[in-house]
Design a protein that fits this description.
Blueprint lengths: L1 E5 L15 H10 L3 E6 L5 H6 L6 E6 L5 H8 L7 E4 L2 H7 L1 E3 L12 H13 L1
Parallel strand pairs: 1-2, 1-4, 2-3, 4-5
Helix pairs in contact: 1-5
Length: about 130
């Protein structure tokens, strides 16, 4: 399954801190046979991938369409289709399926949203 993660407030906080358990969840998803992608309305975010040491699990970084999502993917010639989305905004989750997470505004070492994401993916694939 192609799993698309938003960047800002989904895997990183307002000040750029990585959300707890992101590397572990990315590793487990890839080990389970999924492909992990990052997309952002703020552009292609390889700098976040590299700064957070996530490159070994991320298949690609792409520009996230902000409106007319499906049509925008076709117009952009998107190389892969999202099967499951993880985002702090519900619109893409509603459009493509996936899980809406609480925005990660402030660093919180006790945050469990990525654990919930992993459990939701496992339930989704049955």
């Amino acid at each position: 399954m192609n799993i698309f993660f938003d960047v800002d407030l989904t895997i990183i906080s307002e000040d750029g801190n990585l959300r707890p358990r992101v590397p572990e969840v990315f590793r487990r998803l890839v080990e389970d046979g999924h492909k992990v992608y990052l997309w952002s309305g703020n552009g292609i975010r390889w700098q976040v991938v590299d700064r957070c040491c996530l490159r070994k699990w991320v298949s690609d970084c792409l520009y996230k369409p902000l409106y007319d999502h499906r049509q925008a993917l076709a117009r952009q010639g998107f190389p892969v289709h999202p099967d499951f989305c993880v985002d702090d905004y519900p619109e893409l989750v509603t459009e493509f399926g996936g899980v809406h997470v609480l925005p990660y505004g402030e660093p919180d070492p006790g945050d469990q949203e990525m654990v919930r994401v992993y459990e939701t993916v496992r339930a989704w694939v049955g």
